[in-house]
Write a structure and sequence with these properties.
Elements lengths: L5 E5 L3 H10 L5 E3 L16 H16 L3 E10 L5 E2 L3 H8 L2 H15 L4 E11 L5 E12 L14 E3 L11 H5 L3 H13 L5
Parallel strand pairs: 1-2, 1-3
Antiparallel strand pairs: 3-4, 3-5, 5-6, 6-7
The structure holds inosine 5'-triphosphate.
The site of inosine 5'-triphosphate has 21 residues, from strand 3 and helix 3.
Length: about 200
């Protein structure tokens, strides 16, 4: 069995890149698509997993390096689970994450059917053309008014169940070790352990 000594972290999102880097073993060399001049593929999938697979395949084929990609997002129950796979596109549409968060808060208030929400991450690793593994992680919680300055994306408006702080109020490490990406990574880790030095 071959051993992985480097991984392309197939994302252009800096927050996601840092979290995935910190979850991977220290001795694995981490490479970004940016450093190789590889742009993002179009996200045409209908689910988180279709999109993480599509990204991993794209970056693997461009680089020939074992690739780990993430597709993730925030689902708000009373908004028919929007923004979901369109989480990043909502930010583009509304002119940034701050505006997208304001929009979510406005809609949740207007609908007045509770604040239940969840974050999901689908991680796909492309070891080679025949060995591809996808795992999902999900964390349930609720929408809160904007609080905190840490993290990225929708972190200021999400409080995970069993906690009182938003992701953006938590210390970086405290979020890293409970979030949707961590849950997905722990499942994946069991399956790739033997490939890592
Ligand atoms: P790549 O496709 O290059 O990975 P992206 O930002 O477009 O980057 P996604 O398509 O997966 O990534 O979009 C998911 C969005 O959901 C992303 O822009 C984040 O802002 C948000 N998101 C995902 N995980 C998050 C987290 O842990 N905290 C806050 N926001 C998160």
């Amino acid at each position: 069995m071959y051993k992985i000594n480097k991984i392309l972290i197939g994302t252009h999102n800096k927050g996601k890149y840092k979290e995935i880097s910190d979850l991977l073993p220290r001795n694995v060399v981490k490479i970004s698509p940016l450093s190789l001049g590889i742009e993002s593929p179009e996200e045409t999938g209908k689910t988180f997993s279709e999109n993480s697979l599509l990204k991993a395949k794209f970056f693997y084929e461009k680089s020939n390096i074992v690739t780990l990609s993430d597709d993730s997002g925030l689902e708000v129950e009373c908004l028919n689970n929007e923004p979901g796979i369109y989480s990043s596109r909502w930010a583009d549409e509304f002119g940034g994450f701050d505006n997208a968060m304001t929009e979510i808060l406005k809609r949740v208030k207007k609908i007045n059917k509770g604040t239940k929400a969840s974050f999901t991450s689908s991680l796909t690793i492309y070891l080679d053309n025949k060995k591809i593994i996808t795992e999902i992680g999900k964390i349930n919680g609720k929408i809160s008014k904007k609080k905190g300055l840490n993290g990225f994306g929708y972190d200021p408006i999400f409080i995970p169940n069993g906690h009182t702080k938003t992701f953006a109020e938590m210390e970086y490490k405290d979020k890293l070790l409970i979030d949707h990406r961590y849950i997905a990574y722990k499942k994946l880790e069991k399956k790739i352990k033997n490939y890592i030095q």
